[in-house]
Design goal:
The chain is mainly α. Helices cover 75% and strands 0% of the residues. The chain has one domain (6-130). It is built from 6 helices and no strands.
Length: 132
């Protein structure tokens, strides 16, 4: 872990979090996501928007740390991008798919949520694969 570029990981975690604002916006996937999740408005289970945003950012940074650990020190760009696709689609989206099958959720919400994490991990890979 001492060979991980912690500044690059922090930047990757922050940059990987923010596309969610566009992804889950009215211009992109907010309405179908809300419909499939059974959410009618800005519901948050009693958690404030500020708490959700800060917690989401921290979790994105944790995901970037885990991904950096998987990539190892000074990862090359191309293998990093391939690993991002494998992790996002083969691990995260497939896991969502299993869970959502038993929760009665749609394939569309699996694709929306998995698609965001694909974008997120590709950003992680770009930052970590280019920053040496």
């Amino acid at each position: 872990m001492d060979q991980i570029n912690w500044i690059a990981v922090l930047v990757a975690g922050v940059l990987g979090f923010f596309p969610g604002a566009a992804w889950y916006s009215k211009l992109m996937f907010l309405k179908p996501w809300q419909a499939d999740m059974g959410i009618s408005g800005n519901e948050g289970g009693g958690i404030s928007m500020a708490t959700r945003l800060v917690s989401g950012l921290i979790l994105s940074i944790i995901a970037a740390v885990a991904f950096a650990f998987l990539l190892g020190p000074e990862p090359a760009l191309h293998p990093s991008l391939l690993k991002a696709v494998v992790v996002a689609l083969g691990v995260i989206t497939a896991s969502f798919g299993i869970q959502y099958l038993f929760e009665g959720r749609t394939v569309r919400v699996t694709a929306i949520n998995g698609g965001y994490h694909l974008v997120q991990f590709l950003i992680f890979a770009l930052v970590l694969g280019l920053w040496h």
